[in-house]
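Input sequence (774 aa), recorded before submission:
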Amino acid sequence: MAQNENILANVLEIFRHNPKKQYQVEQIDRMLRRDRLGSFSDMVKALSYLEQKKKIITDGNGHYQLAEENTEVEGDFKANSKGFGFVKLDDEEADDIFIARDYTAYAVDGDRVKVKITAGGNPWNGKGPEGQIIEILERGTKTLVGEFHPLTDAQVKISHFIGYVLSANKKLANYRVYVKQDSLHPQKSDIVKVSISSYPDKDNPDSMTGVVTNIIGNKNLPGVDIMAIVSEHDVRTEWSEDALTQSNAIPDRVTEAEMADREDIRDQPAVTIDGDDSKDFDDAVVLWKLPNGNFHLGVHIADVAHYVQENSPLDKEAFTRGNSTYLVDRVIPMLPFRLSNGICSLNEGQDRLVLSCEMEISPAGERVNYRIHPSVMRSHGRMTYNNVNKVLDPENHEQLEGKYVKLAPMLQEMAELHNVLYQKRHQRGAIDFEEPEAKIIVDDQGKPTDIVLHDRGIAEKMIESFMLLANETVAEDFYRKHVPFLYRVHETPDGERIKSFFEFCSAFGLHITADPNHVKPIDLQKVVAKTTDTPEEAVVQMMMLRSLKQAHYSEEPLGHFGLAAKYYTHFTSPIRRYSDLMVHRMIHAYSEKGTNQKVQDHFANYLPEVADQTSTQERVSVDTEREVNDLKMTEFMADKVGDHFDAVVSSVTSFGMFIQLPNTVEGLIHISNLTDDFYSYNEKSMTLTGRGTHKQYHVGMPLKVTLTNANVEQHQLDFEIYDPNAPKKRHNSGGFKNERRGNRGFRNDHAHKGHYRNNFQKNGNHPHLSRYKH
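Predicted structure, token format:
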């Protein structure tokens, strides 16, 4: 008996050592024989017993894996509007745990919970693990934004509540949040923010109580819809009195005393190059050829750290916000406008304090020398991407302002250097994506009037190249000084995800020989190159992004996979990103105070907190921007119900297909609307296949679709496949929200200057592409 128990324990230990691995009988036998732990028949008996006791699971063909029953784990609860939900574990590779309606313990979406796994997942039948919540560890929803509905006077007397709030968030829409009498008193149809006081329980499973802390405005007023989203994501919009006092005390001109110890580069023809509607300019560039044939490139960045001192009221505000948030009709800045658009902005013709990264670059793109130092500069031109692209276009004959004509030779040399730097990055394996950027145009009432696609030109790419090089130069310099520093990192992707991506690519005839467990950036760059200008280009890039990890900030120099860079930081946008402000602060400190242990310890102690806060707030801004874009895109499509559109399948799930229109608008074709057959889902190939017709829908497939519903409140667009022969029918007002979210990966590091372009994310995981920046 003891020997049998030993065999059972030894076999079980093999599975527990690697709980995600699937073992064949022969593998288990070899491992036992190697350690002289039993015979083949003993092993078979042990496997049979463990399977019977549901300790392990099998596909029936000799493959076994550890079951997860009765394991207790922690994770975040993701609710479904129908009452059930899933718990997402911290391990990104672990399967989500299904929680049936009766086993949620009244958890609310976002709660941190402890789960007992009651049924292990089976990879061979596609069934995931199941469980029940046994403890709510921390509430994830502490505030809620929604529409106020007043109670009658009689109801107020009985209940002692003045009304209730209903959230537009589908995952919270089943709850009424009753408002206490000692809160603010909103009017009917006001959008309000509520601080939650009590949560659902067995006596009140569908309600909560709370206090109104902010009345955003009547839901029908312009701009209230956007500010409701801003409030829901806790994006800070008000300034503390201390911060405004400090801001107002800062001179609006650079003083002689401030310039005293700085290098004066005001005679250099440095220029800013930004979008037509940009108002804050935190980077300027200048270039000339040296007598030895090399390029001199100066990247001069607004010295925000000079004005925003550590632990000052302005610094605390900037740290809390983490970055500016760019919405379709407004910017919620990290710094007051007096700084961001004033003394910190490199406005044309104005003296400004900057940190300069001056680099000497060979014609082959090698950086042979550099200096990082404080300067005072004066912009010789506020230039726009559109006009610089015209200067660089030999076919353009439009007459431009004199400053463009005067500086055209320098701009031409900048384009020359950009081409050299691009080829250098390409050779080392940097992954480059090219796709149109969507901009939502709104009128003065906030109503969307158009969605315009914009392709990046040479000017945009040129500035991107210069910012990338400056960021790499600064990161490498301080890495080699062996001092604490803040890095922008993008870690090597997980082998299993890359393996799945390679398998997906094989369906398009792309045979990739790279080892997924040791993938290099250049391996993925080759995949991008193979699909350039093909129908598969967009979908392959999208699936690649989903397989990558999310870029973030770290005090550890973990490298940047997507850019194929050993050292990378964010130095170039301190007006709109706290990470860059922090980098500037460290540059000043190490230069002025030295790199002694006291200075190093000071930064080492709080860099982890800065890295965590800036990474978190970046995701908050991205989510806010994305949700506003979803709202305005849905609103733009609202009067187009019944219209037909060309579309491409952007994702396939078990419940239907997400499709994307040429203007980047996305929506869902629910599987219930595929009425010509019964369709089954293949997760590995991401396809839906008809059992009778064998018709197959796959990612990247072009379709003709009809818009059947546009639910602006829920940001939902529903489509069906267009059939010109089908009888007309009334379209319902139901809807399926776009829950598809993919991997933003390193996209925030592959576009210019901190805006977040309109597109993909996992680990926050995937929308349509919006604004990104290094």
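Checked by second reader. The first helix runs from residue 2 to 17.
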